[in-house]
Amino acid sequence: MSDTAILQNHLFVGAVLFALGLIGFLVRRNVIVMFLCVELMLQGVALSLVSWSRYHGDWGGQMLVIFIITVAACEAALGLALVWIMAQRGGSLDIAIWQTLRERDQAPYTDREVPEEDRSVEDWPQLTPAGVEPVHPREEDMYRSHV
Amino acid sequence: MFEAISLRTLLILIPALPLSGAILTAIFGPAILRRQSHWPTVLGLAASCICSLMLAVKWQGQLPQDGKAGQGVEEVVTLWEWVGIPQAYAPSPATGLAAIAATENHAPLDFRIDVSLRIDTLTATMLVMVTLISTLVAVYSVGYMHGDEGYWRFFSYLSLFVFSMTMLVTVSNFVMLYVFWEGVGVCSYLLIGFWYRNPAAAAAGKKAFLVNRVGDFGFALALFLMWMTYGSLSFHDTDTVAGVLGARRFAGELSFVGGGVGTAICLLLMAGACGKSAQFPLHVWLPDAMEGPTPVSALIHAATMVTAGVYMIARCMPLFVAAPQAAWVVAWIGAGTALMAGLIALTQFDLKRVLAYSTVSQLGYMFLALGMATLGGVTAGMFHLFTHAFFKALLFLGAGSVMHAMGNVIDMRRFGGLRHRLPITHATFAIGCLALAGIFPLSGFWSKDAILAAVHDQAHATGASSYRVLYGMAMGTAFLTAFYTFRAFFMTFYGPQRIPEEAGHHAHESPKVMWIPLVVLALFAALVGPMLEWTHAFAHWLQYTPSLAMMAQAAGATGAPAAFHWDVAVTSTAVAVAGVALAAFLYLGHRREVAALQYVFRFGWMNPSEAPSDWESASPHAAAVANVTRPGGHPTVTGHCPSDHPSGSHGHEHGPGLLALPARLLKAVGCGLWSLLTLPLWLGQFVSPYQMSHSKFFVDEIYDVLIVGPLRGLAHISYVLDRVLVDGLVNGVGGLPVRLGGWLRKSQRGFVSLYGLLTVVGMVLVVVVSFWWGV
Amino acid sequence: MDWSGFLWAAADSSELATPIGPACACVAGRLLVAVALAALGLWCLLALDSKWTRRGGVGLAAGGVLLMASQLQLVQPWGDWLGFWLLAALAVLPAAAMIVSHRPVYSAIWFAVSLLGVASLLLWQGAQFLGLATMVVYAGAIVVTFLFVLMLALPAGYGRYDRISWGKLPVGVACLVASGLVGLCVWGLSPAPGAAGESPWQLAKPASTGMLSEDLLHPAHVAHLGSHLFTEYLLAIELAGVLLLMALVGAVSWMAQAQRYWQVPGDGVERTDHV
Q: Dihedral sign, CA of B286, B287, B292, B294?
């Protein structure tokens, strides 16, 4: 009875993680965040697998999770390389810039509501300028003998 | 060395050498040989020619020396089996056609096609003629085609043609005959349309091919019928089956089929022969084929390929002997074509077309001779084929030489008096003309005389009036031949010297490589006839052909073979001389006589306003029919309206304003009335003998109306149906996914997230559905 | 083809029976409410941009999730129950924070925290190696790589596209679909009223405790895992190694080839229509 309860609860948590990752993948526009969400979905699956493994007393689920971690590492390496290339080409991590790959006669998606920049969080620490200001030969600048 | 080469080797080498020449030229011509592309062809053809001569000499040595007629000698070399279907033919009394096979053996027969080459005197004759002339023409082409951009292509085609032609005369099976029959047809098509950028040439090639298809359809039907009747398509006997033309049939063990079936076979064969040999009503392609290069005209459309029909009928002569009605039809077709083509040739101004119609006419002569279905007739026809090949090739090459010098101008009205400019061409052309006209002692005289003698004999033997009519037609054709030949000759080489501007400074004798073949051909044209005919050597030689041996036997039983008839010879010579004299009278020097002739022939006396005029004053570019028959300078009946004249009842025309409209109406009514009144006159002009001849008896136009037009209409209907119905259906079905996809395409907006969402929705759907149905 | 077994990668299809029955209607109704609540809460969190909607969203979503969780069997004893839910909260709440956060760097950090929760859940279940591997490999390596790339590609640390989404409707649909997925799972897992304590999926008998402790829950868990990994799954682990090597080479070669593109100024990529 307790084993079933453990299984059920873990599966539930796994499903919630999967769902959260899914929502994140669907609604976020930053490519890297989308990528993170995919990893979260993988975590949900991994959790479920380990629960089944424990429930059945079988190693298969855990082995599968090992390979999930391996493949996730590969995926992260390649995916991040692609993200980096895409960011360089497109100049942005916004997935919306890749709408240029849409069908020719389709209207592009444009944001209707663009929120104001939130300045309040931008309270980074300010470094005090240090050292001595170098001497500027101002006269020479103004009266040069030749151009 | 000469003895070392066996007959078998020679027989294989003769077609193999041109074939290898064709392949070598095709492979190495475009990139490596280029301007030297003629070498494989010329060397291959020359070697093939030498092989043919060696073969003929060796074969002569193998013939029985006692000279007794009626003994067929043949040898068959089987290379490999092409098709073998065991027990394909079940002789059954129910079909009624299997009578002969059934009497022999009730066992089913195999359908078997061997690639087998045969040698007998008929084949040897054809081989010598074909390879000799093609070698000379190939040498001539080196000069004629010099600088052409399709140089290698030309020689490749030429070699391929010679291969097909040698195979055509060598094979020993009707199916193989058909294959190479088509092979020469293809080569002919390729070479007529050699300058395919010229629409006229492309159309002419197409026309030749299509018209030949009509004949070939008959030929194919003949083959089917032959298979049904004889259970074999082989010429020669094999171990199990008696060939169609095999020795066992000659021996009388089995006979040839006559009656309705035999006549049908022969008539269908004749349809094929009519197509290939340009006999009425399938003769229309040959004059158009002159669009090809002149050496091609000389080789294929005068000397060799067009004789394939004659060869085929000669080969199948036993079948025609068994079906005399068919032979009679052949004779009439031949004589009619000869006469008709001769009449057309009278008024043509295109030198090559004159020669083309002359070819048609001479082929008709050969058909006439074959149609006698006697030994004398067949040998005469084959003899004429042999000699005609030389002098017609000579004439065509001479015409090519003239064209070469005149900058490809071939209209005889635009040049004249060329005998000083082109002395060698002039001399050789004269020999060719004399030979063609049948003047003693050149080749044409002997062969034409042999034909006339054969017809004469047959007329006497049967006493049928139809053969007398045929004899008269042949004699008339002889006159026409002499006339139009020398008309062309005088117009080209005599009279005041005129050279078209296209010639430039090329108006001189052709290079050596071109005139040497002319001289060689002239020698042959002059000497072949008398040498072979003086002792009846040709006829005797040909009698060893198995298919003719039977007739020789029959002739030996009934009476003497075709003899030389002094009366026929004298008459034909007189007729020919008369033709030449008339041509000289009309065209030698005093060309204004032509105008009078035209005046008479065009029924000019029916239209008093028409004055005799000199056609030379017509525009030099006026090659069109209308300008020829209605030379400039005289008012034609239909072209002008009376209102064009300044005088007349139209004085009020200069009053503009209110009267302008009635004046126009009056003018229109007057024009219509005048046209109605002059319609008969116009028709009269249209159907005058001159016009009939010049327009080639409107055969092309009749075909256009009767065949081409309806077919075009049918094709157009099919086109519309195809476009609207079939294409509409297909496009509709094909457009469905396109439209569906176009609708789905809208979802392709470049949103990765949207794709993800759709994927998840789909997955959820699958899960829910699978739960619901408990999958 | 057994689709359900294929799709539910964590479940063996032979153990699943069709949950058709009018008796479930009551549970289904509660689940529908829970799904709606969770979806609404997440929608408020993601699509609306004000303090109160965010707080309300948190409440709604939490309510929905708890309502769903209430359908499950309780983990006993209470100590375990408490521990489990603490760890679950450690996994789930940072995950939610991660997808809601407007700063990618924070997202990555929240993800790392969520990983800690997941790893502790794994450890709690006795999967020692996997728990540690998740922590070391994911939180230690992969997330750090993410942060590197984030710093390289997005020096400012955030972009305006991090604060907006595709619009309210797509966000709503996404939330509904994902919540519905969870609800579906719970529906399948929750015990049917007629047969107390039995879920409609008819879970197969669990392994006996003795068997579990002999192998899976043995103190030398990692040694046992290793012996299985390098005997039964030897080929697969070798292939995984090859895959890692290929990914390494592939990533390096892509980056090397991509050098060409970003060294060309004004490479003609259309960047107008997303502004």
A: positive
- Can you tell me the distance from the alpha carbon of B587 to that of B581, in angstroms, rounded to the nearest whole number? 10
Contact C182 A12 (CB under 8 A): yes
Which residue do the tokens 């997935």 mark? A95
State the pLDDT at residue B266.
Answer: 92
Q: Distance between terminal CA atoms of chain B?
A: 90
CA distance B536 to B532: 6
Q: How confident is the model at residue B553 (pLDDT cuts 50, 70, 90)?
A: confident
- Cα–Cα distance for residue pair B669/B661, rounded to 1 Å: 12
Residue B651 has pLDDT above 70, yes or no: no
CA A33 to chain C, closest CA, distance in angstroms equals: 6
Q: Which of the four pLDDT bands, split at 50, 70 and 90, describes residue B636? A: very low
Just give the CATH number of A3-98: 1.10.287.3510
Looking only at the bridges linking them, the beta strands covering B109-119 and B75-89 are: antiparallel
Which residue in the set B745, B753, B756 is minimally distant from A103, CB to CB?
Answer: B745
* B46 has a pLDDT exceeding 50: yes
pTM: 0.62
Whether A100 contacts chain B with CB within 8 A: yes
Considering CB atoms only, which of B746, B752, B756 is closest to A106?
Answer: B746
User: Considering only CA atoms, which of B359, B353, B250, B257 is closest in space to residue B309?
Assistant: B359
Q: Is the pLDDT of residue C55 over 70?
A: yes
Query: Residue A16: is its pLDDT beyond 90?
Result: yes
What is d(CA B409, CA B349) in angstroms, rounded to the nearest whole number? 11
| CA–CA separation, C106 and C142 (whole Å) | 15
Closest-approach residue (CA) in chain B for A25: B753
Query: Are C65 and A16 in contact (CB < 8 Å)?
Result: yes
Counting residues of chain C whose pLDDT is more than 70, the rounded percentage is 79
Q: Which tokens sit at B12?
A: 């294989």
Tokens describing residue B120:
């007998």
Strand blocks (E) in B606-689: none
Q: Which two tokens stand for residue B163?
A: 């291969």
pLDDT tops 60 at residue C249: yes
Alpha carbon separation from B81 to B20, B243, C187 (Å, rounded)? 22, 16, 80
Residue range A38-48: mean pLDDT, rounded: 94
Residues facing residue B119 across a β-bridge: B75
When the pLDDT of each residue in chain B is averaged and rounded to a whole number, the result is 80
Report the pLDDT value the prediction gives residue C274, as an integer from 0 to 100.
41
Residues 6+ apart with CB under 8 A from B580: B437, B439, B482, B483, B486
Among B751, B754, B764, beta carbon nearest to C177: B764
Of the given ranges (A27-41, B722-736, C178-192), which has the lowest mean pLDDT?
C178-192
* ipTM field: 0.81
Range B295-311 average pLDDT: 88
Residues of C with CB under 8 A from a CB of B: 2-4, 7-8, 17-20, 166, 170, 173-174, 177-178, 180-181, 184, 188
- Most B CBs within 10 Å, among A32, A102, A105, A109, to test the B interface: A102
**Which candidate, B133, B180, B138, B141, places its Cα nearest to that of B303?**
B133
Do A93 and A84 meet the contact criterion of CB atoms below 8 Å apart?
no
Q: Per residue in B706-719, pLDDT tens?
A: 888 888 999 999 99
Chain B neighbours (≥3 Cβ pairs under 8 A) are: A, C
Average pLDDT over residues C244-256: 92
Write the DSSP string, B261-285.
HHHHHHHHHHHHHHHHTT-TTSTTH
Q: A31 exposed, middle or buried (CB, 10 Å; 0-12, 13-18, 19+)?
A: buried
What would the 3-class secondary structure string for C209-249 be? HHHHHHCCCCCCHHHHHHHHHCCCCHHHHHHHHHHHHHHHH
